[in-house]
Amino acid sequence: MKNNLLLIGAALSLSSCSMLLGPSGPTSVDVTVIGVNDFHGNLLPTSFRVPDPADRTKTLTVQAGGVEAIGGILAEARKANPNTIFVGVGDMTGASPLISGLLRDEPTINALNSLGMAVNVVGNHEFDYGFAELQRYQKGGCNSNDAAKACKFNNTFEGAKFTYIASNVLDEKTGQPVLPAYKIVQVGNAKVAFVGAVLKDTPTVVTPAGVAGLKFEDEVKSINAAIPTIKRMGADAIVALVHQGGTSGDAFDIVNCKTLSGPIVDIAKTLDPAVSAIMTGHTHRGYNCLVAGPDGKDRIVMQGDALGHLLQRIDMTVDTRANRVTAIKASNVVVDAAKTPKDAAMTALVQKAKDLTDPIARTVIATLGVEQITRAAGPNGESLLGRVIADSQLAAAAPASKGGAVIAFMNPGGIRADLPVNVPNPSKQVTYGDAFTVQPFGNILTVITLTGAQIKAALEQQFDNPSAGTNRLLQVSKGFTYTWDNAKAKGDKVSEIKLNGQAIDPAASYRVVLNNFLADGGDGFTTFAQGTNRLGGDLDIDAFRAYLTSTTVTPDTTERIKRLN
């Protein structure tokens, strides 16, 4: 398959085509659609790994994303083709870093407005603060359920100039849609319709308060039901924005891959053939694949990683006389912050947000019992900071009203720094910024029910993970212990699993708290996705901060995981 690594600086060219003229203008129009998914308020660039063009067995780390660079890419695309549409594929806000999250994500909404976003399908995180707050994001105003953060970026909030859509979100009482199913965007002489759906399992990954009064219908059924109306409105092309995704065995820059798996595949197989391409989100995986629709014809199904690292790009030729797409191609564009001209308006916006949030980032929130708690793992796979985070999550989810958890698991890859990063630290103080640096993802704590047998199965998935010969050891909460034998075969390494000194019963049920990434089977822990009775809770950073604030934390040095051989 053809490699198509579009680093910044590469030409953003459109394929040439003949322009057929009709009575009111051209009937063949080149249209560019650029989309971002799972942006999560990342106004600033972050680290991202891309294939090394000189040796594809290796990767390079670049600083990618950020609204300054995204603005630069959009400017180049619009210069090359004025018929360019900027869209969102969900989770533009929510689980955001401090620079946006502390200002109720209003800087992000303002940035997307300035960047000319036309439409955004809601993701699950758009419901983090409840539907009333989502309506405020659309309409504007300061009547927020978090007055301490709202209208602090500006003293007024104009709301989103783009349209939030979702065909499958209904009022629980009336059964009526609460958002538009689609939006038709006029570019040149062409009408391009964007029809959207958020994953039907949104209630399982959002706090109950966030989706109170709403129900989420099947994605395919809801989108397909909107297609006849879209056709009657004279749409020349239809693109689906679906906040649900999958994973691929191919890198994001491989074009027309055939290795896609996950929930989006079944969706793509059954969506109306009138949909020319499906732009996806939610799984934070970059891919550019083909999936056969119900008519047997392949169509594009793509996703652009997350946090603005990649932009999804579709270039298509639209015949406005026949109301159809005659040519289409797709690519994932790397938003290399070092190689892209910056958008001056976005630079000013970012600086304003930093000026407002930096003082909060420097606020002291706790005094530790030691200068630093490190994330460095010992031979058994445990780290001192991993224990603290697991304990903080168990403390947050142990009350019956929060799920009644008795065990917590934390993925080591989610621990991003030592606490604090720098030593010496003779004051032993840590700031909110220190805590946020450790837990920046804004994951939602999720309580699930697992049997003892499922817990053992999940623990066995730590080995040869992510590849043969490597291990990914979960951090566990106080009171939970087990032994693993490095000499034994995979699938039989774990033994002596206990909770508060009592052996775990394979047939018994246990309430377990973990972040939503793990709960969805992330990092190869697919057993967790089998958990039942899911309940969303606090953000991980909020649980971590509350735990640090509640006491003088000294890390527990008692071994919870015992390694043999």
TrEMBL record:
SUPFAM superfamilies the UniProt entry points to: 5'-nucleotidase (syn. UDP-sugar hydrolase), C-terminal domain, Metallo-dependent phosphatases
GO BP, sorted A to Z: nucleotide catabolic process
Keywords, in A-Z order: Hydrolase, Nucleotide-binding, Signal
Signal peptide from the UniProt entry: 1-21
InterPro entries: 5'-Nucleotdase_C, 5'-Nucleotdase_C_sf, 5_nucleotidase/apyrase, Calcineurin-like_PHP, Metallo-depent_PP-like
Keyword Metal-binding part of the UniProt annotation: no
Any one GO cellular component localisation term in the record: outer membrane-bounded periplasmic space
Domain annotation 5'-Nucleotidase C-terminal: ranges: 364-529
Superkingdom field: Bacteria
Keyword 4Fe-4S: no
Domain Calcineurin-like phosphoesterase: 32-285
A molecular function GO annotation: 5'-nucleotidase activity
Family, similarity comment: Belongs to the 5'-nucleotidase family.
Protein name as annotated: Bifunctional metallophosphatase/5'-nucleotidase
Species for this entry: Deinococcus indicus
